[in-house]
Amino acid sequence: MPHQKLSKWGMPHRVLLENAELQFKLALAIQTTRHLSNRPDFNYLASFSYGKHTAEHGELMLTKEQEVFASILLAHSTTYLCAVQIDSVLGEIVPNRFQATDPNIRSASWIVRLIRNAFAHNPFAPVWETYPECENQTYSVQDVISLETTGLNGKPVVRKDYGGPLALLRLLHFVKTLLPADPAASLPTRQ
After folding, report:
1. Alpha-carbon torsion (96, 144, 15, 159), positive or negative
2. Where are the domains of the chain?
3. Per-position pLDDT tens, the chain of length 191
4. Do residues 153 and 135 lie in contact, with contact meaning Cβ atoms separated by under 8 Å?
5. How far is residue 107's CA from residue 100's CA, in Å, rounded to a whole number?
């Protein structure tokens, strides 16, 4: 299968996926930290300015309860970000991906497209919007993720519909396996 070394945005596809993975992992870490009873405090800026605008400490600070809720929203929105990035990369590296002969690639393409579309119109209250050709289908990437579309159209997205955030992370890893190995394009790992 032919691959471009760089995306149309000038970055290697692997780096684009790894950027989404980094944000995903950070969002989970922040969410976990905010739920600890002995959690460390966030450090808020005394002020922040950019261009002609300035915000003071009181405008930037969250209460402890808001921090917990915002951490949940961050993890939620990172799901959308991962789906968008996976969808973009698949769109560039797999010609006619929705009709691919490999059922895993075809299913991966439909799953991320449907998740992306559900979040696109209302990210904090996503609703499934399926296409007629997607109705009453089961899309499955073996041992990674699956989505049963029967009866989903118009319903709120529930994580268990697609297997949850870790299934999406595993799908991101699956898509990385479709890329040529390029160690120079990878981000550094934790020591």
Report:
1. positive
2. 13-35+63-180
3. 444 466 666 789 999 999 999 999 999 999 888 777 677 788 899 999 999 999 999 999 999 889 989 999 999 999 999 999 999 999 999 999 999 999 999 999 999 999 999 999 899 999 999 999 999 999 999 999 999 999 999 999 999 999 999 999 999 999 999 998 765 545 445 44
4. yes
5. 9
Q: Sign of the CA dihedral 126, 100, 95, 4?
A: positive
pTM of the model: 0.85
Encoded tokens for 89: 């990369």
Strand partners, 54: 49
Give CA separation, 181 vs 13, 16, 113, in Å.
11, 14, 25
Residues 153, 132: Cα–Cα separation, whole Å: 10
Residue recorded with tokens 């990369």: 89
Please check whether residue 164 is in contact with residue 111, taking contact to mean a CB–CB distance below 8 angstroms: no
Question: What one-letter code names the amino acid at 148?
Answer: E
Q: C-alpha distances in angstroms, 166 versus 6, 24, 139, 162? A: 27, 10, 17, 10
